[in-house]
Amino acid sequence: MARQLTFSIFRYNPNKPGDKPRMQEYTFEEFEGLTMFVALNKIREEMDPTLMFDFVCRAAICGSCAMMINGRPRLACKTMTINLPSRITVLPLPVFKLIGDLSVDTGTWFRNLQVKTESWIHTNKKFDPNALEVRMDNKIAEQIYEPERCVECGCCVATCVTANIREDFIGATGINRVSRFMMDPRDERSDAEYYEVVGNEDGAFGCVGLMACADLCPMEIPLQTQLAYARRKMAAAGLKLQFAGVKIS
Length: 249
Ligand code: FES
Fold this sequence. Notes:
With 249 residues, the chain is of the alpha+beta class. It has helices at residues 36-46, 106-116, 138-148, 155-158, 161-165, 171-183, 191-198, 212-216, 223-243, and strands at residues 4-11, 22-29, 66-69, 72-75, 87-91, 97-100, 103-105. It folds into 2 domains: 4-103, Ubiquitin-like (UB roll) (Roll), CATH 3.10.20.30; 118-243, Orthogonal Bundle (Fumarate Reductase Iron-sulfur Protein, Chain B, domain 2), CATH 1.10.1060.10.
């Protein structure tokens, strides 16, 4: 016999005058292959058209459907209900601005992150539209591919104790992003220049090492490895700058 599932879902529309945060329950019978994404759509289509949540791809690519499911940040489209108990609590991701119910604004957070960490190739080479493509060493390309798999869902930020208490911390996703450019031979920034950007407590040295980000990343990116890589480089750059007599703020 199929299980009865009860979904206890956070409801609150900050744009609706007088609305109050509350939990609302919906119940229906589980069926084969049910994901949280399908469950939420069923609730919205058949029980409550006002329920707000985000999705685009349904395939763990766009990163839009991240939410707290039974206390853990997860992608709704990648979470099968069969792996959860019959009572499922769903909350929006913390840290990000709430739009309504389960929908949060990760876009502004990630845009600010890209600007803050200067997430683009820095080069003095002049752009030549006729230049032939330059082949990258396979090993380096594979290394860069790891951090590039980030879908910017915000799960690592939501689960990070530092990001939850310090709004300027760039989180595992930010450090992962910076390490991607550090590995890229086309980026001509020196370690000292990177140090200016992430050699501080809002960057590579802000992590307190609980590593929930690495445990809960839906894409299983080795965030610990990226953090260790960026930290080693920034620690060496900091020491070099100090020996050179540069005042580090
Ligand atoms: S809908 Fe795109 S990651 Fe879930």
